Each structure stands twice: as C-alpha cells, then as structure tokens.
Amino acid sequence: MPLSPNVVxxxxxxxxxxLPYRSLDALGVERRDxxxxxxxxxxxxxRPRWFAVPDxxxxxxxxxxxxxxxxxxxxxxxxxxxxxxxPHATLHVRVPRTASRLxxxxxxxxxxxxxxxxxxxxxxxxxxxxxxxxxxPLALAExxxxxxxxxxxxxxxxALSTRQLDRDGLAExxxxxxxxxQGIVDLADAGCQSGTETIVRLLLHGxxxxxxxxxxxxxxxxxxxxxxxxxxxxIDGEGFHTGVEFERDRRRDFELVMRGYLxxxxxxxxxxxxxxxxxxxxxxxxxxxxxxxxxxxxxxERDARRSVARRHLHEPx
Length: 317
Known about the structure:
Layout: H1 5-13, E1 18-20, H2 21-26, H3 31-39, E2 44-47, E3 50-52, H4 58-66, E4 69-70, H5 72-78, E5 91-95, E6 119-123, H6 136-146, H7 149-161, H8 167-176, H9 183-186, H10 195-206, E7 211-217, E8 221-227, E9 231-235, H11 243-258, E10 262-266, H12 268-273, H13 275-287
Helix pairs in contact: 1-3, 5-6, 6-7, 6-8, 7-10
C-alpha cells in the first residue's frame, strides 16, 4: 500500500530528520513513495540518495550535504547540552576515515576545501547504518578530540545533568576516548547544571579544596556549590535576572547570611569574561579561611518555617 507524503515525512522526522535510501528501505518506505513525497514538498533531497524534512535542524542538513554526520559541539548545541560560545559557528562533521568526496555545506555540490574555515571534519569510521547525526557518546568523544579538556568536561557534566547520558552511555564514552582523555569520565559530576559551575568546580578540584555541588540547605533550598563549611558559590545563568528569579535569589541570599554562610554570587559574564579576577577573589577568600566555621563565623540555627525564601523552596528528591 502506498505511503502518503506526510507519512514518509513523519518517518524521516522521527529518525533524526534526514535519512538515506538504505534506511528508508529498512523502514518500509518504497522509492516511489519517496519520489511522491519529494514532489509534494513534504521532504527535500539534500544529497544524492539522502532526504530530509523541511524542518530538520539546519546543521543536520549541512552535515549531510558535506557527506557525513553531525557531531561534537554542533550536535551538542542542538541537544541543549552546555557548550561555550563559538564565535566562528564552526560546523562539526564526522566522516569515515576513507572519505574523500566531501562537498560544501551550501548544497551546490562543489568540492569541500580541506581548509574550509567553517567546517571541522572529524575522521572516524563506525559500524552500522549511516546516520545524520552521531549517538551522544560518540558526539561527546569527538568533542573531546576536537576541543580542549575544559570544553569536554563542561559538555559531559551537562549531558549528565540533563539526563541525556546514562551509566551505559558513560561507559561507552570511556571506550571511545583515548587513554589521555578518559579522565573526564572520572571527573564527571551531574550536579553541575551549567558550564560556569563546571569551571568553578574544576578550579576547586585542581586545588584539592573540599567542595560539594547541589547541596540542600534547610530553609534555603539547593545551592550550586558549598566550599568547605560555609562558603556558598552561586552562579547566575546567562542574561540578567529579573522578576521572580531576582526576588528568589535575594531571599535565598538573606537566609544564607542569617545562618552564617558567606555568599559568593557570580554572574555568567563574570565567569566567562573576567575569570582571572573571579578566580583570584575566590582563592583569596579560601586562603583567608573564610570557607570554614570559626570563632567569628559559626552556624546559626533558624526555623525553616519562617524562612523568607520558603515560597521558592523545592523539597529534595
């Protein structure tokens, strides 16, 4: 029975947004169904024998046009995994080691210059059917191969925090990484909900300073990081906090201070653009012993039922 153009499009959309003939055959989509869907505008041909839906992510389409699968930071951004900004908007494409007929990403069919500034080609062959984008463990491994260690750690922490990578995926990632990069798996922390939190955590870890992430404090809620006994590091997300978020944060800060904690609140820009000053300031506080309880700094008990932050509390799970 012939498949309607919408059904063909739905099957492609459910499988990464772009598929080759071979994969469509396996899904029971006949070539004449593909032709009808293409003629109806429900799908588009992006490369010989490859088809995509019109609303497929642009970078997925561009990767297929080059002749490979989307990978590394380009894929991670689509998945909502935290990556540092790339001013060059580089497209990361993985191709088999033997690939030679790579094309430009604009669909013109022209040969891709090996030194093309907008494309980073990753050469790695993997078993199985061709895909429009890599499985997440492979994309993370390619990100580690292409970027620096900090970027790889940020992405891994984010993948765990967003629960897109599970224990099996973590084990698979370890196998894909060279021995020199496997340390990021050992250092992974699902408690870091942003790259800025990972940056601070790695500083503390490197200095062997005792710290914990996502600590629950009664009457306050979860805090980003607790250094030592009492130094609370809170890192705001990108953009200016207003309205409910601003009010919540100030109430939480009030309750923390009333309990004897020292709050070290940072903005996204402070971590990303003024890290040297932030790093020096945080280490100076620790050098002075401000992270420990002492004669002048001790824990003060407060009734959580009277917390000014109680409206914004979320009980621990």
